[in-house]
Amino acid sequence: MIEFHNITAYQQETRVLDGFSLHIGAGEKVAILGPNGAGKSTLLKLITRELYPVERAGSHLKLFGSDTVNLWQLRSRLGFVSQDLQEDYTPYTQALDVVVSGFFGAIGAHGHLQPSDEQLEQARALLGVVEMAGHEQTMFQRLSTGQKRRLLLARALVHQPRALILDEPANGLDMGASLGMLKLLRSFCGDDHAMIITTHHIDEIIPEIDRVVLLNQGRIVADGPKADVLDSAALSDLYQTNLRISEQDGWYRCWHA
């Protein structure tokens, strides 16, 4: 589904990735874990084509087997949720318009973009799926952070994508909203659906995630089955502090040793 090979990428003047390679197959559920500044968000921006790698011989980025992906086709295959996207919406955008905007790859409502009755019906149904029914006309500014994040999840689902990509989906949420978001994510983990989550908290890695990639300073320092990678020694080294890891019912927790 996603193939990075020998990729170099910059954010402004900063080289974030250099000689970076990573393959993610169709249907895989992957968590990319690392401290702030590790390169997680840059990695996702390359996938969503918000950012492009340096062009050079022996380097390629392929999505769904092709290195030339039509953006409209990409939006129908990948659903994306991030805090940056959340901050792009104006305070006066109505909740239903947030969801509908996903059909057009837009931010908010625009007069020249007129949804069909079928699209409106689907958007209203998705509001119910993310437990936001009854909020169709509520302004974005009047919603809690957790409610805003659920709206973006509904927006990401309008095209019934083959993969969900979530950049720190529980970031900034209180405990109740965080648990609610993680519960929703678990419900979308069908066998044929891929999911990529970036985070710096292991308690956001839902049980359905079966592969974990540890990222630090733009380099992969570990990649493999969750039970093998979420190791006290590996995470202590990643975060430069002594940590202990425990697991219960597929959920992982950590604390200072």
TrEMBL record:
Any one annotated GO CC term: ATP-binding cassette (ABC) transporter complex
GO molecular function: ATP binding; ATP hydrolysis activity; ATPase-coupled transmembrane transporter activity
Signal peptide: none
Name by which UniProt lists this protein: Molybdenum ABC transporter ATP-binding protein
InterPro entries: AAA+_ATPase, ABC_transporter-like_ATP-bd, ECF_ABC_transporter_ATP-bd, P-loop_NTPase
Pfam families in the record: ABC_tran
The ABC transporter domain, residue ranges: 2-242
Keywords: ATP-binding, Nucleotide-binding, Transport
